[in-house]
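2024-03-11 09:14:02 DEBUG pipeline.ingest accepted 1 chain
2024-03-11 09:14:02 DEBUG pipeline.ingest length=135
2024-03-11 09:14:03 DEBUG pipeline.predict start
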Amino acid sequence: MLDAVVRQVLRAVGAMAIGATLSLCAPALQARSSLHAEQYSVVSLAELPSQARTTYQLIFKGGPFPYDKDGTVFGNRERLLPVQKRGYYREYTVRTPWSRDRGARRIVCGGQPPTQPEACYYTSDHYNSFRKITP
């Protein structure tokens, strides 16, 4: 009888702990999502490096792109861009002078078709931060 009571109390305490943890975490996760969805610094196309302006123009022309990964789906795993269904965002490399690889600079655009994106974002630090591009 005592074992049954102890198990019931432990279950109740465990459920309360899980509920409390979820209630504490959920607002933080929602806040992070909505914070990043609406609060970006903005950068005009004219302020971007010349290589980024070239990439931006290629996006609207549909290429040709210099790297195989250009135009592939960007998963937004960092959740720094507004949350959308998988496949909404595509990433494009911004050439970095003197870099032996693709470097850290990218433009990520969202919308369909890819040649008419609804919004584009620039990152110079490999997805650690984004600035919304205004034409």
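2024-03-11 09:14:41 DEBUG pipeline.report The helical segments are 2-38, 50-61.
2024-03-11 09:14:41 DEBUG pipeline.predict end
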